[in-house]
Amino acid sequence: MDRLKHILVLVLLLSCKQIIFAQNNNSSIELNEVDTNLNETVYISTNSNSFLTGETLLYNISCLNKTTNLPTKYSKVAYFKLIDSNKKTITTQKIFLKNGTGNGDFFIPTTLETGTYKIIGYTNWILNKNIENYFITDIYIVNPYKEISAQTTNQSQVLISEPATNSNISFNFNNKILANRQKVELSVKTSNDDFLKGNYTISVRKSDGFSVQKALFNDYKLINQNKNPNNIISSDFILPELRGEIIKGRIKSNLGEINNQKVALSIVGKNYDLKIAKTDEQGRFTFNLEKANTNPNIVIQLLGDNKENYSIEIDEPKETDFSSLVFPALQLNSESNKNITERLISSQIENAYYNTKKDSIINNDKFVPFFGTSTIEYKFDDFTRFPTMEETVTEIITSVVFRKEKDNYSLLVYDHNQTFNSTIPPLVVVDGLILENLNDFFTYNPKNLYSVNVVKGLYYYEAKSFNGLLFFTTKKGDYETKLSGSYIIKPQLLRPVDTKRYFQPDYTQDKNTRIPDYRHQLLWLPNADLSAINSNIQFYTSDVSGKFEVVLEGFSATGKPVYIKEIIDVKSIDSN
To answer: From the CA atom positions of the chain, what is the Rg in Å?
Structure first.
């Protein structure tokens, strides 16, 4: 019963007519009840806690139940932020979560100064609370191209990596002393299946040589348990992203009605998305994007008549007060210069061969057009090409005609019943962009069109109805509208990061043997699947010799924190 009540309250939060809960005590109690049920926290694993400019920070972000450490089934989007000691944001990244986890990376530019930085992790819902509820950890960045100002210590021996064990789970190596470019095989063994079915990252990286103060992973649960419960502090609360990415805004007008107006969001391109929302009494609208779409080409426009009397504004992201954060001084040890020089040379060589060692982007979901498959499709290259759009529509697209009145074009899709004559226009879309004014489209070169899909009859899409559908796609997915005005905007919105499969060489193939390999990061598996009984993880060492840390970090299927670390030794032939 409590769970049903919880879900009903969450549905209220996402209703079209947003209630300003914080304006009365009863609503504030409801919000804090929702917060208690969500019980949400964020944890971020990184491949290291110290970096040089020119290296890449890799991370995995998990949204967890604060009490059980199990992946949450509520928030579908999380955020990664990197800030410097001046409390300035260096980057903010949006990550779609699958089963409560997601991952990303950040190439550290040479414009950053040497010093201590903080990684911040949160969800939209956590933004309603104070900063103590965010995930916050320190990382250290050294810019070897600029003068380094840092504290120096002679405690170099403290930095030697030590194995970390867990009685429930362990690594099993075929060999822990290896040569350059040798295949490494390891498996994970446990007597408890709960530890194989957990949420883990695996990282194999050369020992930093100058990193310090890395917090033990097992301290994570203790830190969260010691936090005092916090009530919602925002007077203008932010909706949790329960279905996907939320984009909000409002329309304004001194002349027209702002309630019950239709607003469209188009992500224009081959991998498009299209949403139509209806405004409330305050002119506010909300879009929910259920799937991650990294395309930055976004157009938001008002639909209907007299659009010129309106303007559109998009809500800005909430700014967090970082003034209370304290940044410890960066400490370097007596061996730092040698290690920094080695890493600098390695990263320069690796970056020089970036194009031959690219990571591959993973397409998680098969793209399905919003209009489904029950359409008539015309591929224009299957027909004689015509030089004008008028001829193309007339000669190729059956049951569709164009009209021109006073230099204004329109399209008509005949109904299944030829005697039916509707005054409602069809939905005309090009590469995901809704076109109400077709004059631009009829000046477009039809040779750039790839196909059109036609749907006859009354067509409903989200908050609006149409007499049929015409969906055009271009060959390059790059249609641009010439329309401009306050009623149609192209906002620069934060887009989700791509999900990647990180590059791994295969020295059984001759094509890799002649390419220099100076990787310090030998393996990064942000979502390691250990559930297979005989799971075998393989990777190759590089041309870099020394001690490498093999780390498994995460939570078991029952929420137990897991952190194990082993050391492998890579030796060059000359050193043997």
So the answer is: 28
Same domain, 472 and 508: no
- Alpha carbons 32 and 18: distance in angstroms, whole number: 17
Task: Examine residue 23 and state whether it is found in any structural domain, yes or no.
Answer: no
**Residue found by looking up tokens 């939209």 in the block:** 124
What does each C-alpha distance from 163 to 3, 92, 113, 177, 206 come to in angstroms? 43, 33, 32, 15, 14
Count of alpha carbons within 13 angstroms of residue 19, beta-carbon side:
16
Compute the distance between CA of residue 502 and CA of residue 549 in angstroms, rounded to an integer.
18
Q: Cα angle vertex 71, ends 70, 77, to 5°?
A: 155
Q: Is 444 helix (H, G, I), strand (E, B) or coil?
A: coil
pTM for the full predicted model: 0.90
| CA–CA separation, 33 and 37 (whole Å) | 6
Report yes or no: 409 and 442 within 8 Å, Cβ to Cβ.
Answer: yes
Going by the DSSP 8-state scheme, the letter that residue 98 receives in this structure is B
Answer yes or no: is 24 within a domain.
Answer: no
Distance of alpha carbon 334 from alpha carbon 155, whole angstroms: 7
302 belongs to a structural domain = yes
Q: What is the pLDDT of residues 166-211, one digit of tens each?
A: 888 999 998 999 999 999 999 998 888 888 888 999 999 998 766 5
N- to C-terminal Cα distance for the chain?
A: 68
Backbone angles phi, psi at 443, to 5 degrees: -100, -5
Residue 4 lies in a domain: no
Q: What is the CATH number of the domain that holds 567?
A: 2.60.40.1930
- Please say whether the beta carbons of 555 and 228 come within 8 A: no
Phi-psi region of 362 (alpha: psi -120 to 50; beta: other; left: phi over 0): beta
pLDDT digits (tens, 9 = 90+) for 90-126: 999 999 999 999 999 999 999 999 999 999 999 999 9
Q: 502-506: long-range contacts at Cβ-Cβ below 8 A with a sequence spacing of 24 or more?
A: 502/58, 502/359, 503/357, 503/358, 503/359, 503/360, 504/539, 504/540, 505/357, 505/540, 506/540
